[in-house]
Please model this.
Amino acid sequence: MRKFWLLFSQSVTVLLAAYFIVLTLKPDWLTSGGPGGTVAVIEAAPGSAKGGAAGSFRAAAKAASAAVVSITANKAGARNPQTEDPWFRFFFGDQGSGEPQVGLGSGVIVSASGYILTNNHVIEGADNIEVSLNDQRKARARVIGTDPETDLAVLKIELDKLPVIVLGNSDELDIGDQVLAIGNPFGVGQTVTSGIISALGRNQLGINVFENFIQTDAAINPGNSGGALVDTHGHLLGINTAIYSRSGGSMGIGFAIPVSSARQVLDAIVRDGQVTRGWIGVEPQELNAELAQAFSVKAGSGVIITGVLQNGPAAQAGVRPGDVITAVAGRPVKNVSELLGAVAALKPGEPAKLAIERRDQRTELSITPGKRPGAKRLR
Model:
């Protein structure tokens, strides 16, 4: 019996030694039918990768891409006003009209009835606007209204069974969230790029009057304007609008208008054909140490008023130069951008409260805002 166990232990030792030698020198023999054999693999069933690999944005891109359109805006060339002058034509000939201009951009279908959000600069001055869908259909679009102060425009097309994007919640965004940018850069066709949210609430960029941009490093290039910035579910977070670039192409700094702002503009234009904003007639500036000293202001935050329009709503309410506005209708304001947004949100003709600090006193004034000048109705 002892000899049997000795023989057994020696055999096991030899087999284990052989196994480790093969594992070290010829590991492929252990996963095949031997030298020269075929590797045995488990193949995925056709269609099993439908959801995409881990980390894939396939589902989000597919969900959103159908509702992102390409926009071609045609503008007739400007005619030289001197062409009617006989002497001009004698010397320079009949030059006729200038060369027609063609602009390319993108848009997002936000309603089954055919409403499309895009940038105002994409279609501004266009005589003919053509929209191309991802399913190869094309339609002529009409302008429902524009809002140059936010650089947004609303178009409408008449087609059946339109794909519609789902609106997300841009107020829940945070820095580092993953996003996709979808549009038609350089006219090459619909393109999807990915990145993250780089910053929120960007303003004072000199792009629009009202600025509250989402900044992203997802590649945005000329032609992407008016396209969609979406989350990893394919829900719309913003309308891609501008880039910071020294070369004309993406440098990783792109800006999008939050869908929360775009939705307000969309609703106003569809309902009224224009966006109506409040206005109080003041010249605001950022509060700093120099201005605080000049006006003997002790306030630590808010927006200082350096000028008040005579007989304007603010003047009639008792606002004076040197006052610091700290809140509008209960909404705190810390900078000029926030003040503009808070005042614009007021309904003209309806009284609202201004919280101000005057020297070392805090007070509250009742103000009846007027209608912000420059609103434009297109229908």
The longest strand covers residues 191-202. The helical segments are 2-25, 58-65, 86-92, 120-123, 259-272, 289-294, 313-317, 336-344.
